[in-house]
User: Fold these one by one.
Assistant:
Number 1:
Amino acid sequence: MKTRVLFIALIVLLLAAQAGATDFKGKTIAGVRFPFFIPLHNGSNFTTVTGNREPFMMGWNFGAEVKRGFGSHVLIGLTGNYLTTHDDTTAVENAGGEFTSSKHATAKLTGLMFGLEGQWYYEPDWRFQPYLLAGVGLDFWKVKNVVSSVSHKASDFNFKIGTGLLCPINDKFAIDAQVKLTTDIVHLSQDFPAGFYGPNDWKKYSNRPFKAYLEPTLGLNLFFGGELDSDHDGVPDSKDKCPNTPAGVKVDKTGCPLDSDGDGVPDYLDKCPDTPKGVKVDANGCPIDSDGDGVPDYLDKCPDTPKGVKVDAEGCAPDADGDGVPDQLDKCPDTPKGAPVDANGCPLDSDGDGVPDYLDKCPGTPKGVKVDADGCPLVKKITEKITLNIKYATNSYEPDAKSKLQLDSIAERIIAYPETKIEIRGYTDNRGTAAKNMTLSENRANGVMSYLVSKGVPAVQLTAQGYGMDPKYYVADNATEAGRAKNRRVEIESVK
């Protein structure tokens, strides 16, 4: 897992650099760095009285260094670091992923590290400087029992590899992000008795809790030395306000490329070198023409002209009817003043009834409804109560053919006025039981509702209710067949 983390860190640092320059030749660099080091577990061979585990946690790392530049690519220097952390008696694996704490500690680890390192920088002309490093050094370790205060020491010769990214702040200071892997390769001395920390002494690396450690750190570097001119424009870096000027470009006394017309685009890139002062320009130094009509914005009085439209010297296209659509694109050139139009210059007809919005007195007409010259439905809104005496087939609740013709007309009137709410009521005569008649009246009301929905009436405009043989709703005498026929009815009425 830690190897994968290291690999990802290396790749990120290697891909991070883009543009700028620092010449190290003749420079002395002093720096400090912090904050972390991560012991890398030596494997399952390390055993304590509590079992196989990875004891030491991520800890603090404080260092100082001094380096000397030997050319534009190479730095060689000395480093010194102080490391400290604790173990964790509860950790079985991945202790290095937790930060040091004495809460569960039995031992404190400290170390003094001294190294000789060389750093190789990829490209001196980049502003941010990625580099590789390698070196050797000496490690002096001490493990102290936090209970008894007894301590023992070991020393080793090590080998180092790593990578980093140097980020200059100015010509004197730089931030140095670095990841370094140190591996102890030669045992020099130790006085660990068997059982003090691990079952054996520390002569063999397999008996130690770790033999390598990772140092992810940030450094602050201070540069000493002569004046540099990284871009070779004749202006030293300390005075150069444009330190990345391309070779051969003429510069002013501050090291910046000349810009004769002051448009922010240097002369060597400016394809329109005589632009008037204050005019906004593109990357080529030419006045911006946002609508592409050939008239630059600073002269264009109609800056949003559609593509391909011919314009006058002021960037405007003729628009005889003043609807905002130039004559060249206007398919309705005589639109009355103030009438809203579409992209073709024609009056809007939001409900698609053939009457433009500016003339439409009924602007929300549903699609397909026939309207008059004012855009209003030809059919009248239902305001009266409509009674249907439907002749039903046996065991059927579907309206008969004659009633369907009447319902078709009713459906048109409902659809034409979407704000209308219709109640459909079913009634019976007094023959049969109350329960049976209630069901019958409900089914017949629902049958009418279903037929209206099938003709396009939105269901949200309709409600159906059965009232059965309730005497208060009789409209005729049930003593006669004619009276009972009148009572067996369906009523349709607007409730809104």
Note: Residues 1-20 have pLDDT under 50 and may be disordered.
Number 2:
Amino acid sequence: MNRILKFITLLLTIGLLTSTAQADSGYPASGLWWDPDASGRGYIIERQEDIMFIISFHYADDGEPEWLTSQGYFVASEESGSLGEFNGTVYHNSDGQCIGCDYATPLNVESAQGPLTITFNDYRNAVLEWEDETIAINKHIFAWTDLVSELSGNWLLTLIEGDSQLSQLVSIQDTGAGGFAEVRNSVSNELVGSVLLIDGDAVLTLEQASEPELPIIQPDSERFYAGYSTAGVLQAVAIRLDDLPFVVIDAGSGETVSATEQFTGNVSVSIDDGTIIIQTDGLPNHTSPYWGEGHELYEAPHQGMVVNPNRIADQDLTFRIPSQPSIAASPSDTSLGAIGIAVNGVPFYNQYAGINRVTNEWLPLDDEIQSFDSKNGHPQNFGQYHYHFEPLYLTIADNSTFLGFALDGFPIYGPRNNDDSALALDECNGETHATGEYPEGIYHYHITQVVPYILGCFRGTPGSVSQ
């Protein structure tokens, strides 16, 4: 059955992919805006939640460049044809620090220049009103040729029909034919639909839908698009995956990528005489309250979170693990500290918070769980950020994905087999099964939602980690 959906950019809430959730009314796109008829001046519009910050750069009457700022709230509109409105006071800034110069405090930052109103017709078109001037502005598109080329890339597409939700990884590929793109399944490269530019709107037509398990997601909302029927019913949600380093299937060839090639840029991987040597700064590549306010990756604590007093700090960790792991004569216990490493360079820890030095008993995580951020991580007292639970940032695109290595060299995967077969886990949380990276089969560990969460013991001979 064909499904024809008009794509409108929206920033959606975390709980959208539930049968009872409702879509937001939409937000303007953050980035560079301009008036195409008046190049030489422009506007940077940045939105975080409902707060907007505006920068205007232009030239004063004497020809000197100047910039103005404004901050206020975006208020969504319930009227047809209007996305919402921003209202704020304009401030003039001057005589600040030049490039390469010593810091100089900007002057006149509190000099109000009157009210500013921006009425957004949709996510990329608006009307700006300031003083006696009314200016039509739009999101500056400097590389994309049209909305179809803007949508090109890798997506997690979920179709919604009543209580039913079907998801698949797709690649939208601009054909260069002017307003036409192909939609292909990222695993099989099968043609599953098309995107057409009709009257300025990108219209998605899908011929069929696959039935993979719906993933649990907690993403950065800036990646979302939503599709509505002509009656305004939410029928699809698409999540852009291009900036995530964990989609490892080449949509063109269907070839898989080796496990050691999937580590991110802050991780150095080499192999020497049967040992994989992994060096990392241990810094997560995602948001967390533990970065501290003012950091570009800082996010506010989620509801119910109890933030511990530690903050993320740069580490100098070296993991030495077997490149050809083998099953040991008997399993061995994990220890406190790093028991493995994730593909983003963050260490995995075991299912314990510590050890009682008097009774020599392991302490459960019960009192620490509330300190986990939205990605299921937190730092210890030396600032070493780590995961005890499923690293949700890494499983956002595929909860069967390769997540990293345990110290014994065996790989760690998400909570699902890549062929959807049932897990048959032993006491260490592992099984032998074919995976994308090891098509001939290998013993590996799986993340679970119950103790031991990652791995309960080493089935191989563990290597070492040093700092």
Note: Confidence is low (pLDDT under 50) at residues 1-25, 208-223, 243-257.
Number 3:
Amino acid sequence: MTMSFKELGISREMQMMLLENDITEPTPIQEKAIPLLLEGRDVIAQAQTGTGKTFAFLLPIAEGIDTSNPAVQALVVAPTRELAIQITQEARRLQGYKNFNILSAYGGQDVEKQLRRLKGAIHLVIGTPGRLLDHLRRKSLSFKQLRMLVLDEADQMLHMGFLAEVEAIIKQTPEDRQTMFFSATMPSAIKALAANYMKKPSNVKVQSETITLEEIKQLVIETTDRSRQAVLLQVLKDYNPYMAIIFCRTKRRAAALNEALQMHGFKTDELHGDLTQGKRERVMRDFRRGAVHYLVATDVAARGLDVEGMTHVINYDIPQDAEAYIHRIGRTGRAGQTGMAITLATPKDRGTLGLIEKGIRMTIQKTRLKLAEDEYVLQEESKGRTGRTSGNKDNKSKGQGGKKPYHKESVPAKGQASKGKFGEGKKEKQGKKGNNNFKRTESKGNRGDGQLNRGETKDSKSNSQFNRADAKGPKRSDSKRGKANPNTKNTHSRNKR
């Protein structure tokens, strides 16, 4: 039977604040951790994201802050800016109870602005390791009177290489403080850290099945690298998510996919480590208010991102392990709502998928999508294959220096005629040689798009150059080449490139 916040020891005033925020009953991690923390004990809490662990430590902190003392009394260390911002937003929901002051300190912000804020009374500091150490070196922050220390997502800090920075911060705090570790997993290095800096900690663990299995419908769509983007477009068309995060493996892939989706009329934006803090905050603000429907992100967004109304999570690239998978799909199906997680998997992903299924102790439903080939043509499919290229004469001008981007014109934009084999967009007359543009692989002029067929023969290259120049020459209004010989035309094309 679920306990009430009153039974956990939360004050009546704080209960009223929780009711105002539509929080009526505690989650399992809150039930187990809050009584221990209110007693002043050190706690190691192992729980996945989405279990309510943020309030599990913020409620005892809010209860324990003495607003008559202007010193910093509580510190929450988070591995990423996104998580620090999320914790700060949750803490502000409790400010009306005691009107305690909060400082959020993370990279990308104006340091001088933070320093000005520190001149007043600050009771709770929430920050990332790098920026906290920066303030400690400047002597703009002092933790001499700190009474409560929280390391949130401790395992993530270990993975990101922040262990030395975390220890340096801990050493600047009093030994008699209360220490709390919250982590999804408990690697040996985190256990060693706890042994060095905690006093007889109580261990609390909450299983993750409720957030992984019960509230989220999971689906694997089998595809190939060549058709991955086409499958994603079909998924967005078939499922029509209200709000979704689309996860990519790298920043470059996220940026390229975001650009491709925008080319097809989707309201998307990207979130990854290369963005400035101002840009990241603007992206999240637009996403929360609905100006952006789909957020294309790397795993930097997987931790601490809580957006109300998130209906879908799409793994465009499969996560590396079960833990990363849980953190990704945990963005949906929160607070008792249902959600859907769709993972695109290629044959080479089968091993990773097997490990994920073993980690969550279930077999995920698998399916394939039937794609309309006349509607979806991918740049990747042109490599080494015949009869698949678009024959678009503009491809040459859109080259990107040998990179392999998502082809902006792989699917026709809304209201735009398709070009090439599958459409009637080309109306110029072509002879037998002109038709070769549809029967062979991409010509030399498309090297900028990474579409040159390496198996192409020298004869077919020269023939394709002649055909390209022949097709373009008569169409140019400013062309004075007349019936120049093919060698002259090829020289002009190369110089133009």
Note: Residues 95 and 443 are 64 Å apart (CA to CA).
